[in-house]
Task: inverse folding
């Protein structure tokens, strides 16, 4: 058992009370801690804090392999059994309450579904916040001698890489210079959507998931290298196709390579591990080739004293000129950004289009907004984006109900107390965005897709607990591609709404499955019908 000083506990308890007060004030208490909070501070004895070992623990004592099999069976939306972590977590929260401990192979973590407790976690994330180890990805770097950088490293190493990468990715002045490239790609994507529509009435995009995936990869390549990969043409180069498939596999294999234990899977060379390794090998092999070509071009341009094609420096040239990173670190950072940029952004757009299909009234409102803000302009600019308020609200609402990264994780750096339990330093805490979004104490009518709740001045507007909605994470370790992702999403969505109305061929609810990220479980058969 971990010994914690009483003074430190009291201090933390008062912050838990503050979080609880917010919630009771707004919609009633959400956490156990809050519900136990005393009404007259003076007369009340310090609350009893339970030890770590008292945390509810599903399937306590069962071997990991058995737990894994049971977990596979609770993830029953897809045809074959698979580990649908978001469903499993939801089931466990319902059964064991908003906090429980999970021991799985070498992993020992605590899961929470409580905004006040999430706030407490971030208070002790430390100077160099750490996420849950993505062991299969890290182990691949270890065995192949590749660097871990902004996504996968920790401590001072992470900080050094993050500092270099943040500037070109997050500073609004820099992101504004990417809008033209993002707009170019979106225009080509729109043309492609128009030309490949098929199905009985010629309006359906048959493999929309893959088409949006190509859009996201084409967009991020334009931002990172200032190079178009040619993905929106009919005949894609073989190598590019391999790259796309490999990026898919990186996510698709993550659960099979991670559970019940990543190192064990590596040693046994299981199917999941082999798929993960092969995918990363391909991503590095092709990615490094593209970067070599780009760096050489950039150096030649520099030697001739010429700026970039459009007068701006691309991401790769900026980080290459920083002198703070080795060539291997530059490669690994860029590849990690690409890996993090593609499925996340394309799936978010896919979920948004799906949600819009059941809200024709909302499509009309979006059309009205885009007409007012952009009018007949062909190119969408940074200035336009500032005024697309409903578009922003729509994307936020998608990320509330369908957060592609459905849990945020942190390794707490100090002993703390969460919802009345001692949590020792170095414990990994998983915060479920998916379950918080469905909690009626945090969101009114939580299951309803209602973007209006995010609009200032709207009747539906309600205060949201600041830690209940974190689709891009929190603090210094939050998503470094957030601005780029939001820009890409707003620009393509605006162009789609300008030209089409959206309908599902067979309207139905599409459940999510977890393939590393929260993905649709089946093809959505969305039709793009030309607006009159
Ligand atoms: C809708 C799209 C996206 C979503 C929902 C999303 C979400 C997230 C989340 C939840 C995290 C973890 C944050 C945390 O632990 O606090 C993250 C980290 C990260 N994201 Fe994104 N992301 C998106 C797009 C992108 C794009 C386009 C890029 C690259 C251009 C990117 C690059 C990264 C990187 C490098 C990290 C790790 C940052 C670090 O550890 O310092 N993401 N993202």
Result:
């Amino acid at each position: 058992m971990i010994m914690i000083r009483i003074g430190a506990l009291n201090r933390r308890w008062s912050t838990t009370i503050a979080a609880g007060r917010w919630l009771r004030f707004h919609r009633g208490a959400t956490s156990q801690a809050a519900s136990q909070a005393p009404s007259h501070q003076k007369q009340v004895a310090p609350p009893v804090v339970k030890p770590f070992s008292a945390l509810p623990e599903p399937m306590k004592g069962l071997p990991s392999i058995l737990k894994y099999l049971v977990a596979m069976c609770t993830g029953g939306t897809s045809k074959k059994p698979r580990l649908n972590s978001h469903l499993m977590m939801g089931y466990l929260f319902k059964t064991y309450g908003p906090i429980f401990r999970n021991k799985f192979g070498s992993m020992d973590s605590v899961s929470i579904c409580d905004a006040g407790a999430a706030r407490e976690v971030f208070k002790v994330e430390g100077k160099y916040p750490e996420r849950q180890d993505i062991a299969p990805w890290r182990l691949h770097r270890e065995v192949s001698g590749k660097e871990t950088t902004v996504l996968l490293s920790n401590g001072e190493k992470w900080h050094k890489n993050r500092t270099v990468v943040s500037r070109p990715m997050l500073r609004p002045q820099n992101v504004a210079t990417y809008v033209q490239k993002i707009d170019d790609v979106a225009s080509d994507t729109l043309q492609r959507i128009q030309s490949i529509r098929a199905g009985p009435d010629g309006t359906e995009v048959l493999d929309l998931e893959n088409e949006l995936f190509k859009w996201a990869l084409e967009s991020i390549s334009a931002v990172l290298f200032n190079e178009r990969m040619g993905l929106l043409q009919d005949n894609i180069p073989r190598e590019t196709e391999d790259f796309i498939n490999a990026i898919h596999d990186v996510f698709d294999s993550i659960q099979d390579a991670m559970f019940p234990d990543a190192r064990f899977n590596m040693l046994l060379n299981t199917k999941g591990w082999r798929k993960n390794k092969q995918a990363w090998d391909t991503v590095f092999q092709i990615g490094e080739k593209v970067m070599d070509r780009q760096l050489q071009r950039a150096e030649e341009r520099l030697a001739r004293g010429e700026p970039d094609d459009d007068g701006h420096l691309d991401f790769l040239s900026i980080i290459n000129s920083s002198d703070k990173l080795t060539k291997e670190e530059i490669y690994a950072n860029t590849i990690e950004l690409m890996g993090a940029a593609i499925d996340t952004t394309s799936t978010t757009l896919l979920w948004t289009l799906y949600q819009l299909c059941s809200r024709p009234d909302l499509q009309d409102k979006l059309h009205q907004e885009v007409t007012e803000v952009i009018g007949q302009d062909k190119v969408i600019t940074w200035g336009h984006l500032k005024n697309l308020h409903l578009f922003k609200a729509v994307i936020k609402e998608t990320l509330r109900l369908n957060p592609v990264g459905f849990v945020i994780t942190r390794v707490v750096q100090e002993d703390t107390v969460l919802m009345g339990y001692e949590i020792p330093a170095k414990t990994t805490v998983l915060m479920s965005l998916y379950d918080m979004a469905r909690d009626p104490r945090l969101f009114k009518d939580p299951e309803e897709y209602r973007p209006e709740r995010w609009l200032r001045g709207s009747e539906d507007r309600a205060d949201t607990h600041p830690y209940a909605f974190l689709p891009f994470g929190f603090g210094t370790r939050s998503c470094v591609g957030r601005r780029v992702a939001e820009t890409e999403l707003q620009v393509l969505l605006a162009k789609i709404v300008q030209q089409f109305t959206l309908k599902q061929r067979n309207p139905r609810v599409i459940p999510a499955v977890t393939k590393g990220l929260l993905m649709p479980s089946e093809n959505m058969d969305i039709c793009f019908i030309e607006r009159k």
User: Anything to note?
Assistant: The pocket of protoporphyrin IX containing FE is lined by residues 131, 150-151, 162, 220, 336-337, 340-341, 344-345, 348, 399, 404-405, 408, 471-474, 477-481, 484-485 (CB under 6 Å). Residues 271-303 form the longest helix (33 residues). The radius of gyration is 24 Å.
